[in-house]
Amino acid sequence: MKVIRTISELRSELKKRPFDALVGFVPTMGFLHAGHASLLHKAREECQIVVLSIFVNPTQFGPNEDFDKYPRNEERDLAIAKEAGADIVFFPQVEEIYPRPSKTEVIVSDITTKLCGASRPGHFAGVTLVVSKLFNIVQPDKAYFGMKDAQQVAVITQMVNDLNMPVEIVPCPILREEDGLAMSSRNVYLSSEQRNEALVLSRTLMETKQWLITDAPNLVSDIRERITNQISASPLAEIDYVEVLSYPALETVERLDDQESESLIIALAVKFGATRLIDNVIISIKGN
Ligand code: PAF
Fold this sequence. Notes:
With 288 residues, the protein is an alpha/beta fold. It contains 9 helices and 9 strands. Helix 8 (192-215) runs antiparallel to helix 9.
């Protein structure tokens, strides 16, 4: 496995590959966990060259967010990347990616204003800017993203389709700890009490999915209210949003019986102390 820190070195290395070798790309912000490893495994199965990027992207963090304290551990990340089968780890400094402030913006409209886009203004503009830059640098055939950030997957897929970027976006399932907590680099911020309370998220999502199958409620307001009540019962949980929208269009849905899209997302963002966690489940309406 090669660790490369500059764009020029990465480009020269990738030029050496056989012309028909597929390049699979896993962009991350590091502090890798089994969820990231699962993306690397999938890329390893499907591609001849697997590139992982580790870059904590400043442009997707708001002024009062956790950019400076975002967890970092290069040595551990490299060990996980190697074990999971990465061929190349691209590990640039901020100045390599942003040698000067970018005057170019990459804005996906509409779907970036909902959910996390509403609570984190500018976040998705930073994500689409850096992912466009990384796609231009790596020029992958396939790029792998976890569905824990389902809105990010929808936004990046929209960008790639709108701009005819020659890359296939491969959404990969959420990986969960044994007790159900969705894996996230930010879970390390949680105290053991907060971590325990945070289990309310996955528990509520799974129960709601089951309730939709057995009781077939129709009004989305009822679904949202039930979820909100369950999460609010946890004393440490501070709800940012509980939303039920169509997926991937992220349109408002009022009743399940007049729902045109095949899938719904139930998406949550909830703070436990200073740590904001997100989780979701996607439900197929027609036939579950
Ligand atoms: O999902 C992430 O870790 C980041 O948003 C990404 C896609 C690596 C862009 O910085």
